[in-house]
Amino acid sequence: MRYNEKELQALSRQPAxxxxxxxxxxxxxxxxxxxxxxxxxxxxxxxxxxxxxEPVGALLLERCRVVREEPGTFxxxxxxxxxxxxxALELLTSGFIEDPERKYHFECSSEEQCQEWMEALxxxxxEFMRRSLIFYRNEIRKVTGKDPLEQFGISEExxxxxxxxxx
Length: 167
Fold this sequence. Notes:
- The structure is a single chain.
- 20% of the residues are buried.
- It is built from four helices and seven strands.
- By secondary structure, it is an alpha+beta fold.
- The longest helix is centred in the last third of the chain and has 19 residues, at 126-144.
């Protein structure tokens, strides 16, 4: 999937499903915890310096695990991680940085906030949204006898098929 800088900056300005100032530590060794405004929009997690309007970077929530750490903290770990990079997302011109595994650590102000973020991040993943679409597609088909995706001409596309969830 390709994105350009303007599209991502526009997406980062959209209303967020969740937004808060969290402690955040990047995947580099020796990285320190910094306060960042973290904003979840669709399946992107944008993070900003607290005094700037443009995102420092964005995490595409694809093939990720949200892991509970110590009380009030969680991490996002992805295999084949896709991070969209620094200062006005300038890495978009050179593509994604691919690493075998990257871990971003987040610190919340309360245990409740941590639970809310973890659940929201799990729901925002592409795979969760895809499975939900397939599940509801099958439920609608059971009730109406019609495939709701057929009218859009996309019902046979592989991305909408999942043998374990087919009716």
